[in-house]
Design brief:
five-stranded mixed β-sheet; seven-stranded mixed β-sheet; DUF7088; globular; transmembrane helix; GldG family protein; membrane
């Protein structure tokens, strides 16, 4: 009968070899490690550390609050034309930045956000879906292809577990195109999209206005275009100030337009709404041209076409004079009057330089038109902060409202005796709290609030005419249908403002961030130093050229009778100048070579550190560690 030979480590259990123990440990490690990896990948999340200097990949607290508070499962689809952008490295780099930001939010959402990335190739269903989702294609791709780079979001019915079964989209919004110039507000734009997708109904907005912003349907007058635009996205509720005793705290925002003749109870209701965490936008105007004209009474307390909130402005530390209008001849709009064209210094067309590029409301705007606008300032003892949104140029002058009204028939008269104040007047601003109550005497009433939170904000605009259609939109008839055509960004300014203020406090707290483009500061410093050397040499050459020309002019009378005769001294001067000019050109080339040599040396140092030094250090540390282990093992055996 054949004998069964068992392995040595089974027949001699008490004499296990070192290799047998090693094999057994490896088997045990596999049996433990594989289930551990599967378990942690399902129920645990990886630890992520942001080592960038500006914390580009760290979500702000406001974004975390929005993502953690999502009540509905959301699906995000990032459309990016991979093939069409193969020759656009800047756009491809920004796409990676957008994708990583989205992945950070997805990782934080714990399954409530699903992300899909699609390359919409030309003439495909994906391209049609991108266009149907509201994305805008840009031209300039490879071989003339259109470039899609936007985000479509859907709110899905059911909970996260039933998303695959119930794929009925309830709400869809999109970011039409990710503009690299708007990278500072990337996190805000995506967080805003998530917040709006999570809302189950239109945000309610309260409006108090003494202007006919709703139009007069009985007389055939349509609502103003800005109000029509907002009513599509928000639930606008017109409030009667005569009956106002309390502002509904559920209103996402309260919008005051030319507030006049408000009762004490109405002002107190607005005051308490703000201190309770409400968001407020105030549009006042020293000369609201949309009101019917009335004679200006110099003795009156306030002209009928002016508005003010003196008590509340004083409590907030805001300085505003309803009797002052800002003129700016360098931004004057051209108007037609009595058959001729002229520049109206009280009607301003503000360009990109007068808009705050670091605020989400005005960052993407190009032009905002205003008319007879006032200005804001802060009192010396103000506890608030005024951040300009719209400003005049330094060529502006503040004049009395009476003067602008009297110059209605002759706007050119406003330029007589024009004296610029060299002040950039603040025409619209974001006012940040904390705010104190304007009614301290009512502290004994139930529920009275004496102050607001530190992050309270109010948007102030010293013009109401910018809301009117005549300053930013015109009606055109296309195929028999009236269509609105905008020639300024006034409507976008209003939409951005309401959009920003009507969001949650978490959304308001998200500020602009640094961009992912990191310049080579050391190389730029070398180039700047070389440019200074070039500038010095250029100035030296120009001085010597001027001296030589002067010397030639001095020698000119010594030439004699003939104008074509060149003296020996002139030849010597010209030859010396040419030699010096060649020497300076040689020095300029040497400076350029030195610059290139310094940049090349810096590059070589970086390459040496990254390619040679760091790997060598890692290898050396590994060898030292192995040597110590081997030495320790030999000592233990001995």
């Amino acid at each position: 009968m054949p004998r069964l030979h068992l392995p040595a480590f089974l027949t001699r259990p008490r004499q296990l070899t070192r290799s047998s123990l090693l094999y057994a440990a490896l088997v045990l490690l596999v049996l433990v490690f594989v289930p551990l990896i599967v378990t942690t990948s399902r129920w645990m999340h990886a630890v992520r550390i942001d080592l960038t200097s500006d914390h580009l990949y760290t979500l702000s607290p406001g974004t975390l609050h929005i993502v953690d508070g999502l009540r509905q499962p959301l699906k995000l689809t990032l459309y990016f034309s991979e093939h069409a952008t193969r020759d656009l490295p800047q756009l491809r780099s920004y796409e990676q930045r957008v994708r990583e930001m989205l992945q950070e939010m997805v990782a934080r959402a714990h399954g409530r956000i699903r992300l899909q990335i699609i390359d919409p190739v030309p003439y495909s269903d994906d391209e049609a879906n991108a266009e149907g989702s509201g994305l805008t294609a840009a031209s300039g791709g490879s071989n003339g292809e259109r470039v899609f780079f936007g985000l479509a979001g859907n709110r899905l019915a059911g909970d996260g577990d039933n998303e695959v079964v119930n794929q009925v989209p309830e709400k869809a919004l999109s970011i039409a195109f990710f503009d690299p110039a708007r990278e500072a507000f990337l996190e805000y734009d995506i967080a805003k999209l998530l917040y709006e997708l999570d809302q189950t109904r239109k945000p309610p907005i309260g409006v108090i206005s003494s202007l006919p912003v709703e139009g007069k349907p009985v007389l055939g007058q349509q609502p103003w275009a800005a109000v029509q635009q907002l009513s599509q996205l928000f639930d606008l509720r017109m409030l009667d100030p005569a009956q106002l005793k309390r502002v509904d705290p559920n209103l996402k925002m309260l919008w005051l337009i030319q507030p006049t003749h408000l009762s004490s109870d109405a002002l107190y209701a607005i005051d308490q709404y703000l201190l309770g965490g409400g968001h407020l936008a105030v549009f006042v105007d020293p000369d609201a041209e949309q009101l019917q004209s009335s004679p200006y009474d110099v003795g009156a307390a306030l002209p009928e076409h002016s508005s003010d909130l003196p008590r509340m402005f004083a409590a907030w530390g805001v300085v505003y004079d309803p009797r002052q209008v800002v003129l700016d001849r360098s931004r004057a709009l051209q108007i037609e009057l009595a058959g001729s064209s002229l520049n109206h210094p009280a009607m301003l067309g503000l360009g990109a330089q007068e808009l705050n590029r670091n605020d989400v409301i005005t960052a993407s705007l190009q032009r905002v038109n205003l008319s007879t606008a006032g200005y804001f300032d802060l009192a010396p003892d103000a506890g608030t902060r005024l951040i300009p949104l719209l400003q005049s140029t330094g060529d502006a002058e503040a004049v009395s409202t009476q003067r602008t009204i009297q110059a209605t028939a002759d706007p050119a008269s406003l330029l007589q005796d024009y004296r610029p104040d060299n002040i950039h007047y603040v025409l619209a601003a974001r006012l940040q709290g904390p705010f104190q109550s304007a009614f301290p005497e009512r502290a004994g009433e139930p529920g009275h609030l004496a102050s607001s939170r530190s992050n309270a904000e109010v948007v102030l605009v010293a013009d109401t005419d910018l809301l009117s259609d005549r300053l930013w939109v015109e009606t055109q008839t296309i195929l028999g249908q009236p269509m609105l055509s905008a020639f300024a960004n006034n409507g976008d300014f209003i939409a951005n403002m309401v959009d920003n203020l009507s969001g949650s406090s978490a959304l308001l707290s998200i500020r602009g961030r640094a961009t992912s483009q990191r310049p080579f500061t050391r190389v730029e410093a070398l180039r700047n130093a070389a440019n200074q050397k070039f500038l010095q040499k250029k100035q030296e050459l120009e001085r010597e050229l001027a001296d030589t020309r002067r010397r030639l002019e001095e020698l000119q009378p010594a030439k004699g009778g003939s104008g074509d005769t060149v003296t020996v001294e002139q030849r010597r001067e010209i030859e010396q100048f040419r030699q010096r000019q060649m020497a300076i050109h040689t020095e300029l080339r040497n400076v350029q070579h030195q610059l290139n040599a310094e940049i090349d040396a810096l590059g070589l140092r970086l390459k040496f550190i990254n390619i040679v030094l760091v790997p060598a250090l890692v290898i050396l540390i590994g060898l030292l560690y192995g040597w110590r282990r081997a030495r320790h093992s030999r000592r233990r055996r001995s």
